[in-house]
Amino acid sequence: MTPNREPFTGRIAAVLLAAGGSSRLGRPKQLLEWRGEPLVRHAARAALDAGVDELIVVAGADRAAIDDTLDGLVLRVVTNPSWTDGIGSSIACGVRAADADAVLLLLSDQPAIDSKLLRQLVDAGRAGHEMVACRYAGVLGVPALFAGKQALACLIELEGDQGARALLARDPSRVFAIGAEQAAFDVDDERDWARWKEQHDAD
Q: Could you tell me the pTM of the whole model?
């Protein structure tokens, strides 16, 4: 797929979403320990290693605990006061806070996401693709990169439970897709978490 823009030289911010209340799990999934560190810290380190200019972490339900677990990393934590409204408000909060011309969106509950995949997304954005997303389970989804004023404005308009997937689905022909089946897994409940540990403890 040919890039739809000139090579991108602007600032790229990663926006890591960690504001949810983990109601189905019953405890903060951002703080689940995986290989000696909480999932949110694992995701933050992957983002920082992917070549972004800035990392914004959007917190909400467990701000104080998330602050503690991110100690020592170069990033900014912002609070979404409307986190109970849904993921759309957290995306908008993070994009508004970012000092950037493009945003890399990622979640804190996808433990299989690493810096190698995130750097692929960043590199494709740098090459001139306006939207870059992971393709898994037959859909386009996050992690995903959005570049340019129009794309960022659309993210800021999100509200309620509407996530970035809706934007990617509007015109898939404009999205550069990277196959990433590992992004299909996220932690929603105890059964997910137990399955993840069972399958990966020996890795």
A: 0.95
